[in-house]
Design goal:
- This protein is mainly α.
- The protein has one domain.
- It has helices at residues 9-26, 40-44, 50-68, 73-89, 95-103, 105-118, 125-164; strands at 29-30, 37-38.
- A two-stranded antiparallel sheet has the order 1-2.
Amino acid sequence: MPLPVSSSPPASASLKRLRQISHVLDNAVGIPGSDIRFGLDPILGLLPGGGDVLTGLVSVYIVYEGAKMGLPAATLGRMGFNIVLDTLSGTVPVLGDLFDVTWKANSQNVALLEKHLANPVPSRGADRLFAGVVIVALLAMVIGMAALSFWIVKSLLSLGTQIGQ
């Protein structure tokens, strides 16, 4: 069960939005007769390159919002690790998407944010600097994965054209 939303109206609105985003990405659809739930993350992950990039960017947005709410460096690092594991596993066709059904990085990251808001630790200048580094590194990783995916698809299509001639 989620923790109460912070009494600050901007934080409350942001947290509500982040809960909705993580629900859509990780838990929107239930498999009848089971406790298994999944969202758009593993579904979009089936699209070569583009799906993982889109969900990766949304995941980075959750970290960005957390940084704006003053999360400490340790929490931001854990959130970044969740995204890295989710994004890297998504590069493995089918198995990565099955992993996405169970890992739920976005829900974990929102839970970390909620835990912080329930018992906030004041942010330091070093935490804000670390937040910037984490966000830039995550964006670079997601964009790099996209570039790599598109290059692989392009190379495979080019190879297929050469073989067909």
